[in-house]
């Protein structure tokens, strides 16, 4: 059970990046549909739990440290080749986006120069990847209980100090711009692009254990925890729509409204989530080409990290706008392939 919880915590830490921790992703994919966004949160929970369980079990079954073997297993040789190329490209792009996102957050919160901020994030990420695989998973998992606690405090505060009626909150929420035409598509698209980015690291997590049951339970727990976070954050945003409307980092606004110390703790959580995602994505990119036990692994981490740092000067917003839409479409292909693989293993098709 301890190992399953570790895998689940690391899964959450990997998926929950800066966009989630700031509240902006939840606002666009869930809260913008009013109270129907809560149904979207439940749907996302079911999808994350099912997909997380299956990918972790495949990682355990195939004992691979890269997404390549899993992708070819679920999608076949030819289609798998296309997915493999796109995932590899996206892993690097997300790493670069996290370096730039870390720089933007440090600049906004503490006035640190963007070039220096990106360098700090790159150095922290590269240094972490000099550890072994199990240590990396432990580092990523550490931030999950912290984030759960902070979000729970914010959600409880928001509910008990809510000044809006349910109807008013729903109306204000629906005035926000959304990333999808309806709550069902918003939920599926959110799961989709996160699975596209998280597939490799979840595969690696599954391969660290010999039992498919332990691996699957870890993926399932991670999916449920993600769903709880989504629903809690959604409730907090809906309850405080009157103060978060039009803000870039809505959860930080609520946190600062509680107390500046809570705002600082949330800022630390935000930076931690960006760091977690950067570590997971850079690791996933490098292991596609070099095994972690290979002597050249650390050298490749350093080279790719330096290239990612230079590329981060393009800017966080520009990178995200180009990357996330592509991730969504790729994620749908991966989700279909995982479901088909599950049906095939159970001889449903």
Would you write up a description of this structure?
The protein has 349 residues and is mainly alpha-helical. The chain has one domain: Hydantoin permease (Orthogonal Bundle), CATH 1.10.4160.10. It has helices at 2-15, 18-22, 24-29, 36-62, 67-75, 77-110, 114-128, 133-160, 166-174, 183-207, 212-239, 241-244, 250-258, 260-287, 297-311, 316-345. It is globular, with a radius of gyration of 19 Å. The mean pLDDT is 86.
Annotation keywords:
349 residues; mainly alpha; Hydantoin permease; 16 helices; 82% helix; globular
What's the topology here?
Blueprint: H1 2-15, H2 18-22, H3 24-29, H4 36-62, H5 67-75, H6 77-110, H7 114-128, H8 133-160, H9 166-174, H10 183-207, H11 212-239, H12 241-244, H13 250-258, H14 260-287, H15 297-311, H16 316-345
Helix pairs in contact: 1-8, 1-10, 1-11, 4-10, 4-11, 5-6, 5-16, 6-7, 6-14, 6-16, 7-14, 7-15, 8-11, 8-14, 10-11, 10-14, 10-16, 13-14, 14-15
């Amino acid at each position: 059970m301890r190992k399953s919880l570790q895998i689940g915590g690391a899964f959450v830490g990997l998926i929950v990046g800066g966009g989630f921790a700031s509240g902006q992703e939840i606002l666009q994919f869930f809260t913008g549909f009013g109270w129907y966004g809560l149904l979207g949160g439940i749907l996302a929970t079911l999808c994350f739990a099912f997909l997380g369980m299956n990918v972790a079990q495949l990682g355990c079954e195939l004992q691979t440290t890269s997404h390549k073997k899993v992708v070819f297993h679920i999608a076949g040789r030819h289609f798998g080749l296309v997915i493999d190329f796109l995932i590899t490209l996206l892993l690097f792009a997300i790493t670069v986006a996290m370096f730039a996102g870390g720089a933007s957050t440090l600049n906004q919160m503490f006035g640190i120069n963007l070039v220096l901020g990106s360098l700090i994030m790159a150095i922290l990420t590269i240094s972490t990847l000099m550890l072994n695989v199990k240590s990396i998973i432990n580092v990523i998992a550490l931030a999950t209980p912290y984030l759960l606690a902070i979000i729970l405090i914010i959600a409880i505060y928001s509910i008990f100090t809510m000044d809006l009626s349910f109807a008013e909150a729903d109306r204000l929420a629906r005035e926000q711009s959304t990333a999808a035409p309806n709550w069902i598509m918003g939920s599926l698209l959110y799961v989709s692009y996160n699975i596209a980015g998280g597939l490799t690291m979840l595969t690696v997590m599954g391969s660290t254990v010999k039992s498919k049951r332990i691996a699957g339970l870890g993926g399932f727990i991670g999916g449920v925890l993600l769903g709880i976070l989504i629903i809690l954050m959604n409730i907090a945003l809906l309850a405080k729509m009157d103060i978060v409307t039009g803000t870039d980092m809505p959860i930080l606004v609520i946190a600062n409204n509680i107390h500046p110390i809570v705002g600082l703790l949330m800022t630390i959580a935000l930076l931690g989530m960006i760091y977690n995602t950067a570590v997971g994505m850079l690791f996933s990119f490098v292991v596609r080409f070099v095994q972690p036990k290979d002597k050249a692994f650390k050298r490749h981490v350093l080279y790719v990290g330096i290239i990612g740092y230079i590329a981060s000067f393009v800017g966080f917003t520009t990178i995200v706008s180009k990357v996330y839409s592509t991730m969504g479409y790729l994620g749908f292909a991966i989700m279909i392939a995982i479901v088909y693989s599950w049906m095939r293993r159970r001889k449903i098709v």
